[in-house]
Design goal:
Layout: H1 20-23, H2 30-37, E1 60-61, E2 64-69, E3 72-77, E4 81-83, E5 86-89, E6 95-99, E7 102-109, H3 110-131, H4 137-149, H5 152-155, E8 161-169, E9 174-180, E10 186-189, E11 192-195, H6 199-209, H7 216-233, E12 249-254, E13 257-260, H8 263-279
Antiparallel strand pairs: 1-4, 1-7, 2-3, 2-11, 3-12, 4-5, 6-7, 7-8, 8-9, 9-10, 12-13
Amino acid sequence: MVEGRSRVASHDSRIGRLPGLFAGPDTSSFTEFLGAYNPELLPGRRSLPAAARAGEELPHATTIVAVTYPGGVVVAGDRRATAGNVIAQRDVEKVFRADEFSAIAVAGTAGIGMELIRLFQVELEHYEKREGRTLSMEGKANRLATLVRGNLGMAMQGLAVVPLFAGYDEERDGGRIFSYDPAGGRYEERDFYSIGSGSVFARGALKKLWRPDLSPEDAALVCVQALYDAADDDSATGGPDLSRGIFPVVAVVSDEGYRRLGEDEVGALARSVVEGRNDSPGGPTAPLR
């Protein structure tokens, strides 16, 4: 090798060898590996168009909620993506499986958010293959904070992505929720949380409806009620669309792993919420005592 030449040079098809970085045991982090091999492939390393606010007209994902219950956590997201004052997509998905015992959802610039999710999924899988074990919930949350921090340059120009990470912690035998700011700050939330443009309205509903003894089914219903309240006051959040059959994405994570509720299950929940709002537009109320 010529003196000074990077060991991460392109694959030499003449001799069928991969660069040395592919065979080295340097890191269990796929993100660090990719940053060393081809940093331009990382979402936060790309050049931006010459505009004051590059993200103003790009599709944005909106409201996500998460609710804990004894033995797990439920994560749900509405399906609307907006670009300015236009509905860019009515059935976008914002809640995904991170690994067997965790879920990740995003609000903010949709395209970069989906890239971040895919990178995080590979990050967790890469670690598991290299180390022969899964990361702890703390470790997963910290890895995600690093990925969010890597997008800070784009966030400062209007392409912010804010994830919500939740899952089942085997050591604690319960659900945990982590929120983030655009600079990569990581915060553990208690009981429930929401992010996105409708998060203020959703969180008000969660405060009203959350109880420590919720069943998984009731926790899912609380999430759908909260998303309905968010859609009622936030134009960027989409409510259940009965005519098109578009309902929130709802996932349950417990000691049995990640499970996304089927369309029939979520549709039944959404229809019950809409029917209930016909009689009581403000939704269910919490007892005063």
